[in-house]
Write a sequence for this structure.
């Protein structure tokens, strides 16, 4: 995609990009670290279990090489000896094999961690393309693998040469020793030589781990366009955000309309603004705005209030002041207490009136402070 658009992958991969790659099974791995870990574990395990392995091997050889004539000629007896030797051999090697298994599990966890992904198991038919294979042979990765292989051969050869040179005096005197001593000294020299050669591979692991970390991030680098697209996707595309805001407004409006029938009064402008108030002495010290709106929403509030029998009071300056100064579900400001108190007193008088002659006249002057009229 970067090549088609002419953009270079110059940006560091984002956390989302790294997480997606991990889900696909793309994590940094070092073969040199895995090889070194398993090899050094095997060598150390052989040293730790050397006495156990030696004594067990001696018992197996003694039990199977000292056969009576009748046993040597009996097929069943030979099969029984073979099965017994195999069973004892598995038991003998079990601790060492367990150490190797743990090392094989721990090595990948040290770089990249444990991960299981079905993506890596899917067939990739693109790898069957000869041109793709040729590009891989001539790629930078193939060149680095070639250089690492050459370096590995060189390091191992130098380490083996150093071990042979250092062990030459001990190896030459083995011919003059008895069989048991020569065998013990020879195995001891072999173990130390294997340990030194294994430690030499640590050089390759130390060099390969930083390279694999760098190569992994380099392969996941992004173009500027990909970074911008991911930011848009994570923050939400404008049309999606607009739709969400619209749904939120509609939901809030429905809740607001549901509160209108429970209001004590709706103050109008009379057509441009409508503000519904609810006064509950047990919950607050001042009336609360439960619904408000302008123009079309104001008309809906008036219609809803009229259908529910909520009194409508025309107070243009007070309606504008409440609309601009108070949010939904907020108490009215202290400066409008007196004007709203007159409205509520008028409403209570309306509810108390039994006949048309007893209906009170609405107030003509609304004491709204000047600062609430500046809009």
């Amino acid at each position: 995609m970067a090549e088609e658009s002419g953009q270079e992958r110059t940006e560091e991969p984002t956390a989302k990009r790294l997480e997606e790659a991990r889900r696909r099974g793309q994590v940094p791995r070092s073969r040199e670290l895995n090889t070194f870990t398993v090899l050094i574990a095997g060598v150390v395990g052989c040293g730790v279990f050397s006495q156990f392995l030696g004594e067990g091997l001696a018992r197996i050889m003694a039990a199977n090489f000292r056969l009576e004539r009748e046993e040597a000629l009996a097929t069943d007896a030979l099969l029984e000896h073979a099965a017994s030797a195999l069973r004892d051999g598995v038991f003998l090697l079990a601790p060492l094999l367990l150490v190797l298994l743990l090392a094989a599990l721990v090595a990948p966890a040290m770089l990249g961690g444990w991960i299981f992904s079905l993506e890596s198991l899917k067939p990739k038919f693109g790898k069957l393309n000869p041109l793709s294979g040729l590009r891989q042979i001539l790629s930078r990765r193939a060149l680095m693998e070639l250089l690492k292989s050459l370096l590995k051969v060189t390091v191992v050869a130098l380490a083996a040469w150093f071990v042979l040179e250092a062990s030459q005096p001990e190896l030459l005197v083995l011919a003059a020793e008895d069989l048991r001593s020569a065998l013990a000294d020879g195995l001891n020299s072999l173990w130390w030589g294997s340990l030194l050669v294994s430690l030499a591979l640590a050089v390759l692991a130390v060099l390969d781990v930083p390279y694999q970390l760098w190569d992994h991030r380099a392969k996941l680098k992004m173009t500027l366009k990909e970074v911008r697209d991911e930011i848009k996707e994570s923050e939400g595309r404008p049309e999606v955000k607009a739709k969400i805001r619209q749904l939120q407004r509609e939901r809030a409006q429905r809740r607001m309309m549901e509160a209108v029938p429970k209001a004590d009064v709706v103050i109008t402008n009379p057509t441009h603004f409508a503000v519904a108030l609810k006064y509950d002495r047990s919950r607050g010290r001042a009336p609360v705005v439960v619904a408000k709106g302008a123009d079309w929403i104001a008309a809906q509030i008036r219609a809803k209030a009229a259908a529910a029998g909520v009194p409508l009071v025309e107070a243009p300056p007070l309606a504008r002041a409440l609309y601009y100064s108070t949010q939904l579900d907020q108490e009215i400001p202290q400066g409008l207490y007196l004007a709203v108190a007159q409205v509520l007193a008028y409403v209570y008088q309306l509810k108390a009136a039994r006949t048309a002659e007893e209906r009170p006249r609405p107030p003509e002057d609304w004491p709204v402070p000047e600062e609430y009229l500046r809009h």
